[in-house]
Amino acid sequence: MSTHNGSVPGSAEPSSQEHTRRTLLVIGGAEDKRRRTLVLKRFVELAGGREARIVVIPTASSMAEEAFDVYQSVFGRLRSREVSLVNPQTRLETSEPSLAEAIDNATGVFVTGGNQLKLGQLIVGTPLHEAITRAYHRGAVISGTSAGASVLSQFMISMGEEGVAPRQRVSQLSAGLGLLPGVILDQHFGQRTRYARLLSLVAASPSLLGVGIDEDTAAEIVDERSMTVVGSGAVYVVDARAAVSDAHEARHAAPLMVSGAVVHSLPYGAHFDLGAAQLLDFQEMHPEVAVVTSPTDAHDTANAAAALRR
């Protein structure tokens, strides 16, 4: 089902004097969908539990119908009140009033994995983008996994070389939904060795924090500042604001010099201040979560769909 309303969203506060809690649940991909479903359970709780009205946007996926079926099954099993689909196939289609209407009625919006550049091309800067921003500012929880996580920030990584050694000009940023300003989000972080590309990007743009999220792990971010880690992996924060780098003069693909960057490794139970870039609290947690890693989101979706059919 395609479902909407209409402006290019900004990050303006709601006009009401009363503060509304704004919540993002940013998931690193390949979250457990069959066992304890710790991360997805948290999303449903934030969306209202048994009263949750969830909209799934699988537009990034090459297997959009299968991806929706998987999440509809999981959220249904977690007793959500309603799970509906918004899946525009063209940029023009995002102007359909039924799409904004579905988002306006949701208590939670979930963007699946796939190709984040596709999300940028089809959704960013459209009436559907405006509806998502509006939902976020009225208090609906906005969540994304894998590609759906990357697009939540102001600037998203649309492509980039993986590995340990950062290199100059081998990664690229594109405009995201802008719900989390001042941060670059990356996913499948430890599993796909994405430390190099995140470090190279924050070295070139040191005013931005880099946040890398492992699979089956989520960063729960309130009011663009307070971050709590949930799940079986870790969240990494890369702060290059006081670092020295030759990013402005290094040759294409040359090893990048970065000295003085600060890296925070934050497991389940860590509470972190993104504004001050410092740890606030840590309560050690030991989730018994079985992590199923996969080379692609399509593979992960296919495996989950096959398991649900069984």
TrEMBL record:
Domain of life: Bacteria
This enzyme's EC code(s): 3.4.15.6
Top-level EC class: hydrolase
Biased composition (Polar residues): 1-15
A Pfam family assignment: Peptidase_S51
Region ranges (Disordered): 1-20
PANTHER family xrefs: CYANOPHYCINASE (PTHR36175:SF1)
Main function: Exopeptidase that catalyzes the hydrolytic cleavage of multi-L-arginyl-poly-L-aspartic acid (cyanophycin; a water-insoluble reserve polymer) into aspartate-arginine dipeptides.
Family classification: Belongs to the peptidase S51 family.
Protein name per UniProt: Cyanophycinase
